[in-house]
Amino acid sequence: MTKLHVLGFPRVGAKRELKFAQERYWRNEFSEQDLLKLAKFLREKNWQHQAENQADFVTVGDFTFYDHILDLQVATGAIPARFGFDSQNLTLNQYFQLARGNQQQFAIEMTKWFDTNYHYLVPEFTQDTKFKANPSHYVNQVREAKALGLTPKPVLVGPLTFLWLGKEKGAAFDRFSLLDRLLPVYQEILTALAAEGVEWIQIDEPALALDLPQQWLDAFAPVYAQLSQVNSKILLATYFGSVAAHADWLKTLSVDGLHLDLVRAPEQLAAFEDYQKVLSAGVIDGRNIWRADLNAQLAYLAPLKAKFGERLWIASSCSLLHCPFDLAVETQLKEQNPDLYSWLAFTLQKVEELAVLKQALNQGKEAVENILAENQAALQARANSQVIHKAEVAERLANLPADADKRKSPFNVRIAKQNAWLNLPLLPTTTIGSFPQTLQIRHARANFRKGEISFADYENAMKKEIELVVRKQEELDLDVLVHGEPERNDMVEYFGELLDGFAFTKFGWVQSYGSRCVKPPIIFGDVSRPQPMTVRWSQYAQSLTKRVMKGMLTGPVTILQWSFVRNDIPRATVCKQIGVALSDEVLDLEKAGIKVIQIDEPAIREGLPLKRADWDEYLQWTSEAFRLSYMGVADDTQIHTHMCYSEFNDILPAIAGLDADVITIETSRSDMDLLDAFVKFNYPNDIGPGVYDIHSPRVPTAAEIEHLLRKALNVIPKERLWVNPDCGLKTRGWSETVEQLKVMVDVTKKLRAEL
Ligand code: GLN
Ligand code: ZN
């Protein structure tokens, strides 16, 4: 019999129950006892759904109050010593302090979990990190599941990935050297789980999908030889990419089974067809929201079943953590867009899909004939849908002139024409786009959405806000102004709502970190722009001032990166469609007299593929899509782009290849060190390195900004240097914003006088 399992489940609940409870707990409005009770209830619901859908095990240990890597830090005793906490007796309160910081200590740093939008807490390793096993997190969940009569399969991230994801702190050393000390602690945790009688333990080593150094790869065999001495079976789970390059040694690794992500890297299967142990085939996409083609999956799985027999398991490709929870609650979507609704599957539906596959594999297709037929009908409707496939969009993309993504003249010609009308002083000052999103703004938007205020009232409220933002900037004497983006709830959602081909859910939340969730738009069809999206706002803002107003758009790569993307055409094509749609907006802005236009691309860097070998291709189509977004603009129109904190060292040629006239970047926290790459690679165009950190309300001193600006002036010609904050100001309050910008402008004027 083919077995069924999932690699992990979302934790926050169908309607973000955990988030709201946690936040109330943090505000002392909810007791610890109640929070524990809710957590238990949510776990139970997750397990029940797995059990009801023929899962042979329920996955435990994946539930967490904040982050599974933080849990592992606690379980291995590797919490940062700077907090002074005892990992063996950590209270829930202390656990949250690790994640959120306290009066004395800043929080453990977060970073992105592989190429997802989930953030884990980065382990801080020092030369003398002492590990100590505390398996209670896993053991308790095992017992809880068993008490419900279920068969638990605990999951934890393996020792090599755990070490790999951490950072060295303090005196220089190599965290790999900690492996010998860490291993006995893992053994102890696994032994504790085995003592609970668990048959299988899932150990995740997603780092195998990265380019790991040989030393790390060589460690797998001895490490797993030791771990497999435990009295439970080990399923080694890989995901987010192919591990075919390691097939030879993976096949002889002393574990009892191997999980492959066959959605992300179906081709890797060929390398494992002669595997002699349990093969867990990850065939249901844990990273996207589309219904699977069950017939195709069965055709793919049937020969595997013939080969592996009992040893074949089916599973989600990775943890379902990255999917929204339940499609069934999207009643509005179902009503407004029933077709799209019928093409989607969220976490609960994906488990149901696995159940259908299992039944078909074990009992024959006839057992689920009706379901398969319905599945096929839905997929066929999707393939032929007129809402998705718009001939004009495809034709336009196919028939772009060869140099559509090239400016008419080279930068030196353009910048001369731009400077001629812009008439800006040296070191022009500007901001990144947003100004404080006050409570007032958010209330107005909420009320408008609820129908409590009219469209006209909402528009007026936003216009008032824009006027305020313009006046403040004039008072501050900034050179290139922005309208402040009050009308935007979110830099991607705003455009998604105005572009064709996008849809939105009501509860399609995905955990980003801790209690924070994001609700990505769904790009389901060919993308086009039916009407101008930003022109009247920018035009209105421009009408209020004689100074130059900068238009503000979100770029194609960022829109793509922060959405759920259709899987029936290449991502590159979707991205270029968005680029082309944005170019319509750019030209309309230009026509309306907005001739400085910023196209934000904070997500270009984070979208880089996990393996370096795949970078070039990605950079090629993303830069093309970006360049398409300004296709056709005149030489004297100035295109800006903005990127957040980014290590550009390895991709600077591609960044230069975007050929934006001005790029603003986040540099203040790196003491301008990030500029080095620009200098080293002779970045040719204008640059605005951020001169203060916008994440904090703290007002920088003039000396600090002067120091940064002088550093920048040392390496960037004064004619090409702009002055701006690190990023948008929407999360700041007004009072600090004004003070911060005042210091920035004052220092700039002082330095200007010297030039
Ligand atoms: N224009 C956006 C803003 O100022 C840019 C945000 C970002 O870079 N993430 O808010
Ligand atoms: Zn930014």
Structural summary, described in words:
The chain is α/β, with parallel strands linked by helices and 755 residues long. Helices cover 42% and strands 13% of the residues. Strand 20 (596-600), helix 23 and strand 21 form a beta-alpha-beta unit. Helix 10 crosses helix 13 and helix 17 packs antiparallel against helix 18 (455-476). The N and C termini lie far apart (78 Å). 47% of the residues are buried. The model has no long low-confidence stretch (mean pLDDT 97). Glutamine (GLN) binds next to loops.
Architecture blueprint of SSEs:
Layout: E1 3-5, H1 17-26, H2 32-52, E2 58-60, H3 68-75, H4 92-100, E3 110-112, E4 119-121, E5 124-125, H5 136-147, E6 152-157, H6 159-165, E7 167-168, H7 179-195, E8 200-204, H8 214-227, E9 233-237, H9 247-252, E10 257-261, E11 278-284, H10 294-308, E12 312-316, H11 331-336, H12 338-341, H13 347-363, H14 369-384, H15 391-398, H16 411-422, H17 439-449, H18 455-476, E13 480-481, H19 493-498, E14 500-503, E15 510-513, E16 516-518, E17 522-528, H20 535-543, E18 548-554, H21 556-561, E19 564-565, H22 571-591, E20 596-600, H23 615-628, E21 638-643, H24 652-657, E22 662-665, H25 675-680, E23 686-689, H26 702-715, H27 734-754
Parallel strand pairs: 1-12, 2-6, 5-7, 6-8, 8-9, 9-10, 10-11, 11-12, 13-18, 17-19, 18-20, 20-21, 21-22, 22-23
Antiparallel strand pairs: 3-4, 14-17, 15-16
The structure holds glutamine and zinc ion.
Residues 432-434, 485, 491, 552, 600, 602, 642, 644, 727-728, 730 line the site of glutamine.
